[in-house]
Q: What sequence folds into this?
């Protein structure tokens, strides 16, 4: 999964996005193309919406990278069908986002 605004791993151009911790805008030296079966692109708006949804509906307090991660996992689960099991990890906390637009309803992100 990578930001749709900077989808360099998928062969797209670099660009600005607001998904902290991912999408450096270049292919890092440790990246190995052969380890990924597919690459999904998630926009900043989708990632922020999922992060807010996770907090509101599930009580899971995380940031935009986790929102993007879960968005991609749900898309994969939909592709694979009801008999598939998809596992994803949420290695994040939303604490650093409290003062940002992500958790302030009156400020849009994206």
A:
């Amino acid at each position: 999964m990578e930001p749709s605004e900077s989808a360099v791993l998928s062969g797209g151009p670099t660009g600005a996005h607001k998904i902290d911790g991912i999408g450096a805008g270049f292919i890092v030296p440790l990246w190995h193309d052969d380890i990924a079966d597919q690459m999904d692109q998630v926009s900043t708006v989708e990632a922020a919406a999922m992060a807010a949804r996770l907090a509101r509906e599930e009580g899971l307090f995380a940031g935009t990278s986790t929102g993007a991660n879960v968005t991609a996992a749900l898309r994969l689960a939909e592709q694979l069908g009801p008999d598939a099991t998809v596992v994803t990890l949420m290695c994040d906390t939303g604490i650093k986002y409290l003062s940002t637009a992500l958790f302030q309803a009156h400020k849009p992100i994206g």
In short: The chain has a mean pLDDT of 89. The beta strands are 2-3, 41-42. The chain is about 30% helix and 5% strand. Residues 2-103 form a domain with the Rossmann fold fold (CATH 3.40.50.1100).
